[in-house]
Design a protein that fits this description.
Layout: H1 9-31, H2 35-56, H3 59-62, H4 68-93, H5 97-123
Helix pairs in contact: 1-2, 1-5, 2-4, 4-5
Length: 137
């Protein structure tokens, strides 16, 4: 277990994304919102928890079949696009206060996704070799 990850900026951001996505999911469920709103918030919660566990348990270092930070970037970008559409629809329609709260939380989650992409892009250097294939200096 990587005990330093939750205290890092990326770890705190993943935890914040998970909590905000869970809060949006609960708002949509409690207000009886359309299934698309609930499904998006629920999937974002589950996927973010899985990435959090991946980094927390250092599984990204063990499973080298995929470049996990790049997969995380793709997930964040796609989630941000879907959240933009769903959150704006939820805020515009605002059938009740629960849907409005879920939409506002969706926009906050959108900002967190964009910040996550920026942090991950700063971390990744595609020119740098990874792992054992790095040349000896």
């Amino acid at each position: 277990v990587d005990r330093a990850f939750p205290r890092s900026a990326r770890g705190a951001l993943k935890i914040a994304r998970t909590l905000v996505a869970l809060a949006a999911f609960l708002c949509f469920v409690a207000s009886g919102a359309h299934e698309a709103y609930t499904a998006l918030a629920g999937m974002e919660t589950v996927i973010t928890v899985l990435f959090l566990l991946l980094y927390l348990l250092r599984l990204d270092a063990r499973m080298r079949c995929l470049f996990w930070p790049l997969a995380d970037i793709f997930n964040s970008v796609i989630a941000a696009l879907f959240l933009l559409v769903v959150a704006l629809f939820a805020i515009i329609i605002k059938t009740n206060k629960g849907i409005l709260a879920g939409g506002v939380l969706g926009l906050i989650l959108l900002v967190l996704c964009i910040v996550d992409v920026v942090l991950l892009c700063k971390k990744i250097s595609l020119d740098k070799a990874r792992g054992r294939s790095a040349p000896a200096k």
